Amino acid sequence: MTTSIYNDEQLILAARLYFLDGLPQAQIGKLVNVSQSKVSRMLAMARERGLVRITVPEYDSRNGDMEEELGRRLGLEAVVIRTVGGLRAEDLRQTIGYFAAPVIAGWIEAASRVAVAGGRTMQALVDQMKPSQPKHELALIQAMGNIDSSPGLYDAVELGRLMARRWGGTFLTLSTPAILPDPETCRRFFGLEQIQGVMNQLGQADLALVGVGTLANSVFLERNVLGPSDLATLQAAGAVGEILGRFYDAHGNECASPFQQRVVSLSLNELRRIPRKVGVVAGADRTQAVLAAIEGGLLNALVINEGGASALLKETR
């Protein structure tokens, strides 16, 4: 028997034994009188001829009930991604990124200037975003200086470059550390024409994509930009969260701390003026920081997993 004379009946038999009866290909070969290597080819031909039709029930990747509840309680535009239990942190971020990417890509395509921050969940999101068409007039703008001298793949400068390449837009960088040694140095940096130009563009953004940090889970502590004594200072100042390198209290107001005048980033007041401010969050450990950011007008949209959304709803009951 050669592959050129396989008829529909033979292909259906092979497909039935494999897909419905679950027989191994070696056994199917004996029943159909072909070698095991030819069974795989017969199954492929069955699909090509339309004899095998694989159907999967529609899967809703978003929890609409939680999205509506968050909207009612917090005045929030929410994207709540369904996730299975027990995922590792990395897998949780990848799940959020995969299913939220089409939504956020649509928001980007409706914008003209996008302020971009960094973060691991943000990286998972950006990696999955695919524009429906180029948008050459789109401007992506780095919203915070570099955390240290060796930016990682999840830093704003790398994510902004990637997004600009995909959309065919432009990318404006803040070529400076995020936290400078002292307020005077920071003041001089803000006086530079190059920095002023980028900050002016950030002030005109109509969409911001930001991560939300906490004192216990901050990239600045992880990469030793801030140390234990800095953490103690921020705790004493009442800090519960961090966005764009700016630490804020339980009401979303920037804390008076030695770092307040040393950060090169979009200010929290300027962030408040952006029409759509999207927090991208994985997990429930940032609940207080997210709620404070919402209360302070720093976020009005949120991408989060079910576990994180559940913690927010529980806290607001």
Overall average residue pLDDT: 92
Query: How many strand elements?
Result: 9
Strand order of the largest sheet: 1-9-8-5-2-3-4
- Beta-strand residue percentage: 5-15%
Corresponding CATH architecture of the largest domain: 3-Layer(aba) Sandwich
Could you give a short account of the major beta sheet?
Answer: 7 strands, parallel
The total domain count is: 2
GO molecular function, one term: carbohydrate binding
Family: Belongs to the SorC transcriptional regulatory family.
Keywords: DNA-binding, Transcription, Transcription regulation
Protein name: Transcriptional regulator with sigma factor-related N-terminal domain
How would you summarize what this structure contains?
With about 325 residues, the chain is α/β, with parallel strands linked by helices. The chain has 14 helices and nine strands.
Structure notes:
This protein has 317 residues and is α/β, with parallel strands linked by helices. It folds into two domains: 46 residues, Arc Repressor Mutant, subunit A (Orthogonal Bundle), CATH 1.10.10; 252 residues, Rossmann fold (3-Layer(aba) Sandwich), CATH 3.40.50. The chain is 46% helix and 11% strand. It contains 14 helices and nine strands. Strands 1-9-8-5-2-3-4 form a seven-stranded parallel beta sheet, sandwiched between helices. It has a two-stranded antiparallel sheet with strand order 6-7. Strand 6 and strand 7 form a beta hairpin. It is elongated and about 85 Å long. The N and C termini lie far apart (70 Å).
